[in-house]
Design goal:
single chain, alpha+beta, Mutm (Fpg) Protein, Chain: A, domain 2, 5-stranded mixed beta sheet, 5-stranded antiparallel beta sheet, extended
Length: 175
């Protein structure tokens, strides 16, 4: 079994562009649900590569915006519906590579089931930014953390208990 994640399989180089500013976006779906493109838009620039209609579980989707003129940036957003019984959670991604200033990116999940998911982000620097978003089930992030904390607390508890027993034993043996 490989320890490689879907993000490891994404090439680190982007689509080639001659634009002054661009945003090359990858969304990795690390859930067991299909993501369906619900809505998208471009604030500034042109859509060079369109986002896919669906992203299957364990797969990735990739799209690109680029600036459309002198001293212009590129920015846009996408909304992905998480396809499940409720159909109520929506992933919203926003990305911007302005002509002047810092790049900005955000990812969130909105709706009734939003607490079940977590959006992560890597990359996004430079004039021709390459950004990776990941959508994960929140339970897979925090359960191992709780187990680790519980195990650590038990370890320190027994270590403390043992040290108290040894100290009491040493005290009693001196008498």
């Amino acid at each position: 079994m490989s320890s490689q994640t879907p993000l490891d399989e994404v090439p680190k180089h982007g689509f080639s562009t001659s634009a002054a500013r661009s945003v090359d976006v990858t969304l990795v779906n690390m859930t067991e649900r299909v993501l369906r493109l619900d809505d998208s838009g471009v604030g500034h620039g042109d859509l060079r590569i369109a986002a896919p209609a669906n992203i299957l579980p364990g797969r990735k989707g990739r799209w690109m915006l680029e600036s459309s003129g002198l001293m212009k940036g590129a920015d846009g957003w996408t909304k992905w519906r998480i396809v499940d019984e409720n159909g109520s959670a929506v992933v919203k991604l926003e990305y911007e590579s302005p002509w002047h200033g810092s790049n900005s990116f955000s990812g969130s999940v909105e709706g009734d089931d939003s607490e079940s998911y977590l959006v992560g982000r890597e990359g996004g620097s430079g004039d021709n930014a390459r950004v990776f978003f990941t959508l994960r089930n929140r339970k897979f992030i925090y359960i191992p953390t709780y187990i680790y904390i519980y195990r650590s607390l038990l370890h320190y508890f027994f270590q403390f208990l043992f040290s108290q027993t040894v100290n009491t034993h040493n005290f009693l043996s001196r008498s």
